[in-house]
Amino acid sequence: MYIVEPRGCALFQFYTLNKIAYVAVKSSKETTMQGARQLMKVYVTRRIPQEGLKVLTEAGVCKVSMWDSDEPVPRAELLKGVSGAHGLLCLLSDRIDTEVLDAAGPSLKVISTLSVGFDHIAINEIKKRGVRLGYTPDVLTDATAELTVALLLATARRLPEGVQEVKSGGWSTWKPLWLCGYGLSGSTVGVIGLGRIGLAIARRLKPFGVKRLLYSGRSAKPQAAEVEGEHVPLDTLVTESDFVVVSCSLTSDTQGLCDKAFFSKMKSNAVFINTSRGTVVNQEDLYEALSSGQIAAAGLDVTTPEPLPTDHPLLTLKNCVILPHIGSATYSTRGIMAALSANNLLAGVMGTAMPSELIL
């Protein structure tokens, strides 16, 4: 048991038992009202950054149960933990389906996900039950855009290959065409999905001397003028772009969008980048396109499944750079995400307006 001494008027007690953390919080005023108001039970499916835990503990209205590990909560523990909960704070890797909702019972008022995406949650089911949903848009835009540009450059300029050559002794002397890649200067870049993150990516790519910035989507975006973006049909984007960057949401229309037909339309020297969702891409078709030389290279921060099995064919290819879904992985971004998730959760259990609620 860990006890933190009072700070101001708040007393915090932190208990750890079998990887489940329990946090009970009372202010001096709360102590006098102990019999008048019951603390709300909330369940957190993973150890979250301290910024989020601080929000929950200092509110003085919640009894927090948390799976105290960086690894996903086992299914049985999740079902046990949500029982009787008023609020649930989950991650993108947690499958929140009918079974979980049934285990929580009618007390559940709100689900807060520490993510922008919400395809891991049974949306229709929570809508039917009147459960509110909070999420974390906007706050990870810059971090994801930075990672996308880094991945594009690493893939196009073959940086992982270069590092490996240095380590393995393959670097012998300067050679005119050794480890040559593709540059952004004078190129055409196509962004599929010019939303918040897509626009942030485009802003960062333009200073590299990109000649044309194409984007596709249901309609033209007024903000595209900032990056001189041209709204074009998807086929035009795919066939004319030197770099194709996928930054769209996962919907029924985009699932499996990047398939054999898609890759067959790309230039043979084109580079494909995906930092949206793994299921937007048919990975078998991508492997064929890369191994046959149909396209030059690919960089992925998202895959299906996650983590990708170590024996997956894509991992055998030198022209495929795969990252472990770290688009938002900066200390500041994850801290802000945790705080926003916690504030969404608190608002939900208290029945007030959330900072960021998905209207169902």
TrEMBL record:
List the GO molecular function terms: glyoxylate reductase (NADPH) activity; hydroxypyruvate reductase (NADH) activity; NAD binding
Gene3D superfamilies assigned: NAD(P)-binding Rossmann-like Domain
What is one Pfam family matched by this protein?
2-Hacid_dh
Q: Which keywords fit this entry according to its UniProt record?
A: Oxidoreductase
Q: D-isomer specific 2-hydroxyacid dehydrogenase catalytic domain location, by residue?
A: 42-357
Q: Which domain of life is it from?
A: Eukaryota
Q: Does the keyword Oxidoreductase apply?
A: yes
* Location of the D-isomer specific 2-hydroxyacid dehydrogenase NAD-binding domain: 149-327
One GO cellular component from the entry? cytosol
What protein family does this chain belong to? Answer: Belongs to the D-isomer specific 2-hydroxyacid dehydrogenase family.
Known PANTHER family for this protein?
A: 2-HYDROXYACID DEHYDROGENASE-RELATED, GLYOXYLATE REDUCTASE_HYDROXYPYRUVATE REDUCTASE
Q: What is this protein called?
A: Glyoxylate reductase/hydroxypyruvate reductase
- The organism encoding this protein is Conger conger
